[in-house]
Amino acid sequence: MMRFPTLVFDIETLTDLKAGAHLYHLDLPEADLEQALIKLRRQESGMDFQRLALHEIVCISGLWIDEQGFKLFSFSQENLSEKEILTKFLSIFDKRHPTLVSWNGSQFDLPVILFRAMYHGLSAPSLFDQGELDQQKRYNNYQNRYHHRHIDLMDVMAMFNGRNFQKLDDVACVLGLPGKRGESGYHVPEYVRQAEWLKLTSYCEGDVLNTWLIYLRWLLLKGQMSLDDHYHWIQTTIGYLHQQPQQNEFLSVWQKTAQHTTFTSQYFPCTSQEEGSS
């Protein structure tokens, strides 16, 4: 059964060069800082992926679902500072207490939001309280991986075993969903540098939509949604996306990828008939 309201979300980040320079005591021109930080990170961990506290948020996208329907939204640095992005996102939890749905949100998105909110001196008890202020949150809060206030699909689908973690793109592909459509997070810095904000928000929203569609399949698997209700939500999503010009490509790719599995081919029956007659 769908819980209202539900908020599916995702963030996009860049390396915070200023904070990185301060952390490692680097006195370098900005053009050389990123490469220096990458080299230091490789020495520390053997990988390029920066410490969570050094991830500056450039976009947060979400899909809000309640009794009134859908709302797909993005807060980005096109016209907001990182502090303003966080303030707007965190204010959602002051007004409503949605079921949060993410992909890898418990290990990446929420910890980054926590660090960056602290960096800017923000307060977010509605998201981070674990029962100190509201006793009910001792038993159902956004941090505990076994609670249902925040459902990290990567975590629950791996049965909380890190060896079973999968990439969002891979799972979406296997399930007949659009996935990242040839893009990857490596494009994010370039989108920001080139001020291609629509590409950035469309990319982030695409991850949100894939996560939402996997969540619907998860609810079906768990018996928390009937097959008829699942089909209803899929068709409602398709109808909504037809009204979102920035997601035309997502919808177009989805029509094609849906034909890769018997189950998803019913999502776009006209497409199936057209392909069968050609």
Largest sheet: 5 strands, mixed
* Unreliably modeled segments: none
Task: Provide the succession of SSEs.
Answer: EHHEEHEHHEHHHHHHHH
Distance between the termini: 39 Å
CATH class: Alpha Beta
Inertia-based shape: globular
CATH topology, anyone? Nucleotidyltransferase, domain 5
Output the radius of gyration. 20 Å
CATH evolutionary superfamily: Ribonuclease H-like superfamily/Ribonuclease H
Number of strands: 5
Mean pLDDT: 93
- Strand proportion, as a percent range, falls in 5-15%
Trace the largest sheet across and list its strands: 3-2-1-4-5
Give the helix/strand class: alpha/beta
CATH architecture: 2-Layer Sandwich
Query: How many domains?
Result: 1
> Helical percent range?
40-55%
Number of helices: 13
Core attributes:
278 residues; alpha/beta; Nucleotidyltransferase, domain 5; 13 helices; 5 strands
Describe this entry's structure for a reader.
The protein is of the alpha/beta class and 278 residues long. The protein has a single domain (6-234), classed as Nucleotidyltransferase, domain 5 (2-Layer Sandwich), CATH 3.30.420.10. 50% of the residues lie in helices and 13% in strands. The chain has a five-stranded mixed beta sheet, sandwiched between helices. β2 (55-66) and β3 (69-76) form a beta hairpin. The model has no long low-confidence stretch (mean pLDDT 93). One of its GO terms (molecular function) is nucleic acid binding. Residues 48-255 form the Predicted 3'-5' exonuclease PolB-like domain. InterPro entries: 3'-5'_exonuclease_PolB-like, RNaseH-like_sf, RNaseH_sf.
